[in-house]
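User: What would this chain look like folded?
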Amino acid sequence: MTQPAPRPATVARRLQKEYPDAECSLPHTNNFQLLVAVMLSAQCTDVRVCMVLPDLFAKASDAKEMAKLTFAEIKKLISSVGLTNSKAKNIKKTSEILVQQHDGEVPNNIEDLIKLPGVGRKTANVVLGVAFGIPSLVVDTHVTRICNLLGLTHSRNAEVIEKEISANLPKKYWTKWAHVMIYHGRAVCVARRPNCRVCVLKDICPSANV
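Assistant: Here's the prediction, encoded as structure tokens.
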């Protein structure tokens, strides 16, 4: 008999207890820096992104300073993160829009955020949750993979997963959801070699191999 999928709240409670210090791993001192850091993290490891942030933010710590840099200057500063051309272009244009339309400040609503070049729902939700404390459910590769293993979804579409999980998970868990999933995905539920024997979800996970 196939084990039913667990309740999302049960998963959230267990993972938050297991990883009480789980939080955004991208260093930042203001909302703009968080936005840029998350933009850079697309298809790139946080470790790699963290290597370029000090020099980048030393050169331009806010939107007004970043908007003054040329595309070539930004590209050089982020050259090791991959997708350099598109990311440099998006950071440059986003900075200019923030200065021109938002007085250099990062918007606190998803409608304005996703209008910015290079900012999708994932990036917008990270910013809303971490910077503004607005309950926001982020769906990244760890969330997608683990939610599928748990049977919480059968979709690989981030927007579909966001809607499915948010409909069944109290808002108080939303912002921490991705953080604890990322920690769990790196520490235990590792792709290709999950360590189910020590997993705090093994008794409720239909994919557990113990």
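The chain has two domains: 8-22+137-198, 31-132. If you want, I can go into more detail on any region.
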